[in-house]
Amino acid sequence: MSLIQYVNYVCIKNKSNSNNSNVLFFFVKAIEVWKKVLKRLCTFIDTQLHLSPKNHTREMHSTCVATYNTLITLIIERPTLLDDPENLFELCEIIELGISGEKAQVHKKNFL
Fold first, then answer.
1. Among 30, 43, 32, which Cα is nearest to 91's?
2. What domain range is 71 assigned to?
3. Are 111 and 89 spatial neighbours (Cβ–Cβ below 8 Å)?
4. Fewer CB near the last or first residue (10 Å), C or N of the chain?
5. Residue 21 has pLDDT above 50, yes or no
6. What is the DSSP string of 13-82?
7. Residue 101 maps to a domain
8. pLDDT tens-digit map of 43-62
9. 102: which DSSP letter?
10. 24 in a domain, yes or no?
11. N- to C-terminal Cα distance for the chain?
C-alpha cells in the first residue's frame, strides 16, 4: 500500500467511524513515515480549502472535517511528531487555516 493510499484509507476510515472509535491501525512504523502522513494530510486540507467557492460542497467540507479528525488522532497516537519544529509549524498553519480561513504571512525561516 502506498503512502497516498494509506492516507486516503485513514481519512475514509475516520470519516466512516461515527462511533468515535479511533481504531485507525497505527502500526509501528518509522517516524519519517508519520511525518509524511502529517504533511500529506495538511497538504490535502490546504488544497481543498483553497479551491474556488463553487467547489465548496457539503462533501468537501465533510472530507476536510474528517481529515482534521485524522490529524487529531495522529497527534494523539504519535505525539513525538510535534518535537519537530517543521511539523509543529505545518500543523499550526493548517489549524489557523481551518479557524480563520487563511494562513498568516509568517515565513518558516522566521518561525524556525
1. 43
2. 3-15+29-111
3. yes
4. N
5. no
6. HHHH-TT-----------HHHHHHHHHHHHHHHHHHHTS-GGG--HHHHHHHHHHHHHHHHHHHH-GGGG
7. yes
8. 999 999 888 888 888 888 88
9. S
10. no
11. 33
